[in-house]
């Protein structure tokens, strides 16, 4: 579980998050909903210790520095070493957690062997996303945070990723953010909303409700 205790964040006099407390449950797919520019990415940066803030984030009772290697964040822009090949990037970021042969087998589920030999600077936006998804399979993180993961993927890959995320959640605590609600409607468990500088749990066990994210956004955010 990720415990978020009395989290506050501001830039100068501009308050981004105000004294918010909530828990992200283990082995669930949680979704954070909020308008663009209201602080979702800032929250993730605070969670990862990349920004100063007030309050505490605890990962199964531990501070970030004790569990950093168990966490993987996939940002929307999927940063990689652009002058290296896709496969070389996976070898570097895999941190020797799996042998070379197994990394190749996993990567081939997402990208062809010829493409993996190309430098990442020649990859499309969607191909970089697929490379990042291969990294999840390789690292098998305990905590997985994904920002706008469905952007740039074709329909076939989107359906495949939905199945993968549900599979990953069996052994991973997953936090998602995004705006392509049709993608998230089918897979999420808990819905958190970011409104009026506060973050709170709005819907628990979403799959057993009759709600849609589009309706929640219209009623609770707009």
TrEMBL record:
PROSITE patterns: ABC_TRANSPORTER_2. GO terms for molecular function: ATP binding. Residues 2-221 form the ABC transporter domain. InterPro entries: AAA+_ATPase, ABC_transporter-like_ATP-bd, ABC_Transporter_VariousFunc, P-loop_NTPase. It holds the Pfam family ABC_tran. Coiled coil: none annotated. The keyword NAD does not apply. Keywords: ATP-binding, Nucleotide-binding, Transport. This is ABC-2 type transport system ATP-binding protein. The lineage of its organism: Bacteria, Bacillati, Bacillota, Bacilli, Bacillales.
């Amino acid at each position: 579980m990720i415990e978020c205790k009395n989290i506050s964040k501001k830039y100068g006099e501009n308050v981004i998050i105000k004294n918010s407390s909530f828990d992200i449950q283990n082995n669930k797919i949680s979704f954070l909903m909020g308008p663009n520019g209201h602080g979702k990415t800032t929250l993730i940066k605070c969670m990862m210790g990349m920004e100063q803030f007030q309050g505490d984030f605890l990962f199964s009772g531990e501070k970030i520095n004790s569990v950093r290697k168990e966490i993987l964040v996939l940002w929307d822009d999927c940063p990689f070493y652009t002058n290296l090949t896709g496969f070389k990037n996976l070898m570097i970021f895999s941190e020797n957690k799996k042998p070379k042969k197994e990394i190749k087998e996993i990567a081939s589920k997402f990208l062809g062997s010829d493409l993996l030999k190309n430098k990442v600077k020649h990859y499309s936006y969607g191909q970089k996303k697929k490379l990042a998804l291969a990294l999840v399979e390789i690292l098998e993180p305990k905590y997985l945070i994904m920002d706008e993961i469905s952007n740039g993927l074709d329909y076939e890959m989107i359906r495949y990723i939905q199945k993968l995320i549900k599979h990953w959640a069996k052994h991973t605590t997953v936090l998602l953010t995004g705006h392509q609600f049709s993608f998230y409607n089918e897979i999420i468990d808990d819905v958190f909303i970011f409104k009026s500088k506060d973050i709170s749990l709005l819907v628990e066990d979403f799959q057993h409700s009759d709600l849609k994210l589009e309706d929640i956004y219209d009623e609770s955010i707009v």
